[in-house]
Structure formats: structure tokens, C-alpha cells
Amino acid sequence: MDIEKRIAAVNWDRIAGDLNEQGWALTGPMLTQDERAALIESYDHDEQFRSTIIMARHGYGRGEYRYFAHPLPQLIAALRPTLYERLAPMVNNWGQGPFPATHAEYLRQCHAGGQTRPTPLILRYGPGDYNCLHQDLYGDLSFPLQAAFLLSEPGTDFTGGEFVLTEQRPRMQSRVSVVPLQAGEAVIFAVNHRPVQGNRGTHRVTMRHGVSTVRTGSRHTLGIILHDAA
Fold first, then answer.
1. Residue 68: left (phi > 0), alpha (psi -120 to 50), or beta?
2. Nearest of 55, 27, 4 to residue 149 by alpha carbon
3. Which pTM does this prediction carry?
4. How far apart are alpha carbons 139 and 228 in whole angstroms?
5. How far is the C-alpha of 81 from the C-alpha of 100, rounded, in Å?
6. Contact 52, 66 (CB under 8 A)
7. Fold for domain 3-224?
8. Which of 87, 108, 184, 223 could form a disulfide with 29 if both were Cys (CB 3.0 to 4.6 A apart)?
9. Alpha-carbon gap, residue 18 to 188, rounded angstroms
10. Where are the alpha helices (DSSP H) in the chain?
11. Are 204 and 133 in contact (CB under 8 A)?
């Protein structure tokens, strides 16, 4: 598996600049068609998952998602530490750390704090499904950035279902971004807050993310959250 090489080939200086400027960044396509198909197919394999959430039951929207159980699939087990090691220096520069150099060290901190459940997940949407604006916070410890990989082909497998982000700056109305994801591409984005330089110094901007209504077809997404859950 060469996912580490594909991640290394991304322009991480551009990623850092986009995250600093807008709180999110696109990687370009990273997952192959075969990898995407395998992840979509795995959704129906109950033994790979620790829990299933039906969003309408909780007021989260419509659709469903499943959290992977240990042991994580090889691809996901490789994605988490490789992405973490690229992103940890960025959030340390934001002043939100210090975060350790390796994901294994960070997970030890999570587990010591009682957050031991894996958080990578697959989300599945059909016609009329959507995901309300939210933040993926699962305990006192949370890594400030996460990634969402689009597994389905927009315009072919589904229509609608745009990934959206909002930010709320002090004394301003919310700003919305619609993210033009390609199949196999990830959007990296702020989980909770990000720093923004204003006229009166640096302030925290609150970020939330969601998915607009899917009009036709089926949409699958892989979520890579870098902290574990309580």
C-alpha cells in the first residue's frame, strides 16, 4: 500500500496556507477507485463496525453512519498516523497544542483520559438524506483538524449532497463555504475552533460542518477523526 507516498506527495505548504486562510483545504484525489469501492462495500459487513447511528433518531439529519471497530482496516490504520504527523505541526503553530509528534503518543493521551473507542467512520446517504451542521467532539480531548474523503462519484453516483462548512466570527454573521469535493479527495477542516487574525488581535472562530440534501443516488464518505472517543 502506497498511501503514505500519496500523502507525502500532497503540497502541504498549500494545505497549511488554506487552513490558515479559510479553515479548510482540499488534498486532490488520494484514494483509488478500488479503495473507494472496497470501503463502500465494507459498509454492509457488520463485524467491521462497533456501532451504527441512524441520524433521524437523534435529530442529526437523515442517513446513517457506522464507526469502525478495532482492528481498523489497513488503509485507515495507515491514514490516521500519516495524516496526524503532517497536521500536528500546523495546529501547534495555531497555539492549540502542544500535540506530540506521533499519533501513537497522542492516542496514549486519549486512552489515559478514558477515550478509547475508535472514531473513523463511514457515512451513507440516500435521496432526501442530509447531515445537520455539527462538530465531532467525543470527549475532553479533541484534535483540532480532521479529514473527510468522498468515496462516491459526484454527478454519477449521486447529485446534491454538497459538503458545507460554516464559521462564526465574533460580532459577525455566519459565513458558509460549499466544498467542491472530487471522488477520492479529502477535505481537511477545523473540528471546533480556529484562530483568525482580526483588527484587535487573534480571536477564535467557531467551525461547524454538514452535508446538504442528497437529491438522487447514494453518497458515501469516509471520516478520519484523529482523537478517540469516550
1. beta
2. 27
3. 0.96
4. 8
5. 12
6. yes
7. Jelly Rolls (2.60.120)
8. 184
9. 10
10. 3-8, 12-22, 33-42, 55-58, 74-93, 103-112
11. no
In 3D, which of 25, 220, 225, 50 has the Cα closest to residue 135? 225
**Dmax over Cα atoms in the chain, in whole Å?**
53
Q: Which of 54, 76, 158 is nearest to 121 (CA)?
A: 76
Give CA angle at 140 (139, 143), nearest 5°. 85
Q: Which amino acid is at 72?
A: L
> Which grid coordinates belong to 35?
479503495
Helix (H, G, I), strand (E, B) or coil at 2: coil
Q: List residues bridging with 222 in a β-sheet.
A: 122, 149
Residue 131 amino acid letter: N
Whole-angstrom distance, CA of residue 142 vs CA of residue 157: 33
Neighbours of 124 (CB within 10 A): 19
Preceding omega of 98 cis (within 30 degrees of 0):
yes
How is 172-191 classified by DSSP, letter by letter?
S--EEEEE-PPTTEEEEEES
Output the tens digit of pLDDT for each of the chain's 230 residues: 699 999 999 999 999 999 999 999 999 999 999 999 999 999 999 999 999 999 999 999 999 999 999 999 999 999 999 999 999 999 999 998 899 999 999 999 999 999 999 999 999 999 999 999 999 999 999 999 999 999 999 999 999 999 999 998 767 788 899 999 999 999 999 999 998 877 777 788 999 999 999 999 999 999 999 999 99
Q: Which residue has the cell 501513537?
A: 104
